Amino acid sequence: MKKINTLKKNYEFRYVLSKGQYYRGKCLTIYIKKNKLNKNIIGIAINTKMGKAVKRNAVKRLIRENYRLLKDKIEPGNSIVFLWNKNIELENANFYEIKKEMEQIFNKAEILKK
Question: Which CATH number among 3.40.50.620, 2.120.10.30, 3.30.1330.50, 3.30.230.10 corresponds to the domain 10-107?
Answer without folding.
Answer: 3.30.230.10
